[in-house]
Amino acid sequence: MNRQRILLLSVVHPATDPRILYKIAPSLAIHHEVFCALPNARSNQQKSNIAFINLPYFRQLLSRLLFCHPVMLWKCLRIRPDLVHIFVPELIPAAFLFKWLGAKIIYEVQENLYKKFSIKQFNNGLVFRAIFRLFDHLARKSFFCVFTEDAYLQEYENLALPYAVIHNYASIPFMDEYGAREFPVNEKPEFFYAGVISMERCFDVLVTALSKLKTRYPDFRMHLFGPVRFQPGEAASLPGYAEIRPNLIFYGYTDQKRLLSYAKNAVAGIALLKPVADYPDSYTTKLFDYMALKLPVIASDFLLYRHVVEQSECGFCISPYDAGILYQKLLWLIQNPEKGAVMGRNGRKAAEIHYNWKQEEAILLSFYKTILEHSGGS
């Protein structure tokens, strides 16, 4: 029996996107023939039965539409997939072409753009917003949908076809392979952050807290992994930034296989976001990654986060505007390593029981089976 062809497609996500590359693709490859089309993908980037299709990358939407989408269509239409799973809304028009040729389509919603437009720095014009709304509503009527958050269902009502919520929880085996944890005694404490680095994600608050911490621990290190979403001048104008700049290590976007090793000596993982856009309704993936790594977590005091962190007793939920409280929690974790280790183990236990990719994988595979056996909506 021939294995059905699955195309995982994005023109925005990096070639090492953890959800696509290290979770969805390997889970599907056990049962299907999987093609993964991503910007700057390399055919040898992962030793598995996943075929990679390299796409060019452009930051601006217009450039992608003109120069990336035609290349994507030329390369991907030829494989004649049975199912196409798109990860960004700009691919909805192309998805209709795949649908016309007989493929079934999954439209994955990873953010609530209706709320997120308010803080987007790129591709945020009124024309872009209007076009998005048009095609997004067409997709609701024509495609199967995957949502990464339960809260998105409040926006996406009356869907025409079956849908699934598949959270972006941590892959425990992956974390264990690349992020073995130690519990250090910290004369030179280290802290860990993985994700977009922006003022909306409390970089300004972090700077203020760390500038206070430097008076007690002048040799601390803050590991920051992810793209920076502010101008150098904005950071330079923050009080205390010049003093702590030597303590901050910016790595840029980094493959998760590499960055996890830097967490092994960390005192805490930072997961602070301000209550803007869709942040209060959406889990930040780093929260579950930190828990799987046995890192004590310092997260925003959103009700959604408190339900996880406080119930699991794996860290602190604090105001994302209060640098003084952040400083106090960092200091407490440095000075109470045994209690911090207990928090870390609590988080790991909760991840193993509730917040792991294995259970989400079961939902994914069941949903795919439903779609591929579905007689309509192809």
TrEMBL record:
Domain of life: Bacteria
Keywords per UniProt: Transferase
Keyword Oxidoreductase attached: no
Protein name, as recorded: Glycosyltransferase family 4 protein
Record carries keyword Transferase: yes
TM ranges: none
Record-linked Gene3D superfamilies: Glycogen Phosphorylase B
Species in which this protein is naturally found: Dyadobacter flavalbus
Domain Glycosyl transferase family: 185-349
Signal sequence annotation: none
InterPro entries: Glyco_trans_1, Glycosyltransferase_grp1
GO molecular function: glycosyltransferase activity
